[in-house]
Sequence to fold (268 residues):
Amino acid sequence: MHSFGYRANALLTFALTILALMCVIASFSDNLNHPTPTAQVQVLNINWFQKQSSGNDEVSMTLNISADLQSLFTWNTKQVFVFLAAEYETPKNSLNQISLWDGIIPTKDNARFWIHTSNKYRFVDQGSNLRGRDFNLTLHWHVMPKTGKMFADKIVMSGYRLPAEFR
Amino acid sequence: MVWLFASVRMDWQGQKLAEQLMQILLLASAVVGFGAGYVMGSFQMMILIYAGGVVLTTLVTIPNWPFFNRHPLKWLDPSESEKHPKPQRQQPVISKKKSKK
Fold:
């Protein structure tokens, strides 16, 4: 500590060590938050439902998605990525997951939303298994923190069924 | 102003004080910043308060302020050293060096 350079070096090193420690504690503080998010999805209409020339079934639907994800936000949250997936079982695959809609929520104020949309990404089956198929709509989310670990969770909504005939 | 930076060495007591001040100020600003940020729910507030603390600590501890030099070392007078002459170099040391060459 006898010269300008030694003091500057010691201060910089110690300051950055403490900054790293503060970030670690801040990321641990996320574990104190116990979120209680809610979500509802309604299928308002099946716009069309047909077999492609390649033999795969495709359906287009209008969805009404409402969710309250405000409790996911803490002081250490940068943004939340959220997507809605259709999930169903076929004889070939025990789990098919198709993303129908997604979004990035930048602030807590935007985390309570309501959206009326047709599926943003195409709902195409791997084969021809969609007629009369029961499926779940699952809202998945990834909480992206400013520092530390990313959290992911989901809400499964079941009891949806596709029509028995193409239209 | 040059004395603030490089020319004059800080005395022993001053060095200890500078190091302790640096550690206390940084830790205190970290605790205050974290507490305020957590309570206000603002990560940015934590960073701003801590950055302010680092700047303050830099200004207090890095320049060689006069209050770090209140305990100057008292060197003996040159006349004093003449009364206690340095021990003379021993012959064997010189002869060893020569023998190596």
